[in-house]
Every structure is written in C-alpha cells, then in structure tokens.
Write a structure and sequence with these properties.
The complex is a heterodimer of chains A (about 150) and B (about 160). With about 150 residues, chain A is an alpha/beta fold. Chain A has a single domain, classed as Rossmann fold (3-Layer(aba) Sandwich), CATH 3.40.50.12280. Chain A is built from five helices and five strands. A five-stranded parallel sheet of chain A has the order 2-1-3-4-5, sandwiched between helices. The longest helix of chain A has 16 residues. The relative contact order of chain A is 0.20. Chain B has about 160 residues and is of the alpha/beta class. Chain B has a domain of about 90 residues: 2-Layer Sandwich (Beta Polymerase, domain 2). Chain B has three helices and seven strands; from the N terminus they run H-E-E-H-E-E-E-E-H-E. The radius of gyration of chain B is 18 Å and the shape is elongated. The chains are: A alpha/beta (about 150), B alpha/beta (about 160). At the A-B interface, helix 3 of A face loops of B.
Chain lengths: ~150, ~160
C-alpha cells in the first residue's frame, strides 16, 4: 500500500455526485453524514470540492449529459481516488436499463471500487460498504468462509 | 365570470374551429380544435379571458400526434385542455411563443422528444438531450429504435 493511500484511509474526504438519481440515495447519503448515523466517526468528512476529495460517492443512473461531467470530475480528483457506487441505479441502472438516456452503467465510465446495492440502500449498508472499502484497501478484508 | 360563461364564450366565438367538447368533470374540460386555429383560440383565452397557460403535453398515439394545451382559470378552478391532432408523417403546428413566453421551453421539449415542428418558434433547438444526440431521432415516438451502438442493455451477470 502506498503512503498516499495509507494517509488517505485515516480520514477519507468524500465528494457526493448525483448522476440523475431520484434523490432517494442522496437522502440516505445525507443521513449517513448527519449525527444520527455519524459516519464521521470513521474519519469520513464531506468535502466541498472534488479537488479536496479522496472518495467519490456516485448515485444515479448515469445520464448521457451527467456522465460527461462525472468523467471530468473524476479527472479533476487527486489520485489515488476511490469510487463508491451507491444504489441500484449506479450499479446497473435498475429500472432505467432500457432508457434512451442511460446507455452505459457508471462502472464502464469510471473505475468503481465498491458497489452498495439497494433502492435506496440503508445508511447501515452504506456504512458497511465504506468500512469494507477501507478494509479492502488495507488488505485486511476477510474472505468469505475463512 | 362563471364556468358556464367561459365555456359559452369559447363555444360562441369559435363555432367553426371546435371539433369536439368533452365535459369531463366540474373542473376539467377537453376541447378539441382544428390545428390551424390554435393561435387564435390561445390568444383569446389568454388575453381576453385571462387564463393562465399551465403546460402543454404531447402524445404519440400511433394514429396521430396529439398536443394538449392546458389553460387554468384560477378564480373559478377550471382547467381547459385544448387538444389538437396532428398528422404523424409531418407533425407541424404554429408556435405559441410569440403570445406568451411560457410556451418556449415546453415547445422545445416536445420538439426534441416527439419531433413536432413549431412554426414561428424563435429558438427551436434541443433542450434536454445531450449534444451528441443525432438529429431526426425522437426518443418518445412509438417507432423509436436504439441508435447508439455502444449502449449496453444487459446487467453483465
């Protein structure tokens, strides 16, 4: 693990991108960040700009227009940058898979590290996903059955 | 002005232009008019009767194209929808944007989604679709076919 990545995991700052979601996933993300679920106890803090972020939270089905912007945002993010896809739409476009405006899923445009399914995923699921991401990068993620 | 007066006024004035009147409920009336007389009717309803232009909606119903122009009379809680039926092969209608600016964007949206051409619209270009969207492809038409060869339509499992 590089020094940069190690430093990043102490307190990953997140930036939240909605690529045309119905706002339900965004509400759950907001729920995570606010005191009830308080994701800040893992050091995760919402960043105001993509240029300060280490972690991208992507929600939504990925419109033709917004995916161009996501691509640009990902290029602006300081590397190493980890990407978390939240919700069924960001994973596989959910019910919008045959929509004229959603040609490709998010993970064909930018590399995704963690997928959190659900419509919307509960805040607990998002926390579990982010903890798993940290474990995965540290290399301490336990394989199933071991 | 009462509900009856409004309907009477419109009926009286546009006897030739009205094809059909459907009195759906106490707050909702559908009036089918000839496409060529739309501007006249809209101008009268908007300027003389003081209705508010709410929105227009476009439909593709296989046999023809249809646009509904919804006008609201707020004091008497009445919504009148003017329905025009257009030819599917060459859908064209006069624009209402010169009368009220509120029709500008909805006409642009109907233009890109259904391909209805609005004659006299000052700025008829795409509104929501992306810039690389091909001309002449309208996604909400019945006969829309996938044009993007790079599109992935399976879940990859």
């Amino acid at each position: 693990m590089s020094v940069k990545l190690k430093a990043l995991l102490k307190s990953p700052w997140v930036f939240h991108i909605s690529t045309g979601s119905c706002n339900n996933c965004d509400i759950e993300v907001l729920d995570c960040l606010t005191p009830r679920f308080d994701i800040e106890r893992f050091g995760i803090l919402l960043a105001g700009s993509i240029k300060h972020a280490d972690l991208l939270l992507v929600t939504g089905s990925g419109n033709r227009k917004s995916m161009e912007i996501v691509k640009k945002l990902y290029e602006q993010a300081p590397k190493p940058c980890l990407v978390v896809a939240i919700g069924e739409c960001a994973l596989s476009r959910g019910m919008f898979i045959h929509s004229y405006n959603c040609p490709v899923p998010v993970d064909k445009v930018i590399p995704v590290d963690v997928y959190i399914p659900g419509c919307p995923p509960k805040p607990e699921a998002i926390i579990a996903g982010l903890v798993k991401l940290i474990e995965k990068v540290k290399g301490t993620l336990k394989k199933k059955g071991k | 002005m009462k509900r009856g007066d409004v309907l009477e006024n419109i009926n009286q004035r546009f006897k030739e232009e009205i094809i059909d009147v459907i009195d759906k409920s106490s707050t909702r009336v559908y009036i089918e008019i000839k496409p060529c007389s739309l501007v006249k009717v809209a101008k009268y309803v908007f300027e003389e009767l003081g209705a508010r232009f709410n929105i227009a909606s476009g439909l593709d119903v296989r046999s023809h194209m249809e646009i509904l122009y919804h006008f609201i009379f707020e004091e008497i809680n009445l919504l009148i929808s003017f329905r025009v039926k257009l030819d599917r092969a060459k859908p064209e209608i006069d624009s209402l944007t010169p009368i009220f600016e509120a029709a500008n964007w909805i006409e642009r949206e109907i233009y890109e989604m259904l391909g209805v051409k609005f004659k006299g619209h000052p700025d008829l270009r795409k509104l929501f679709l992306s810039d690389d969207w091909p001309d002449g492809v309208h996604p909400l038409r019945c006969d829309y076919k996938e044009w993007d060869r790079k599109a992935i339509r399976d879940r990859g499992v």
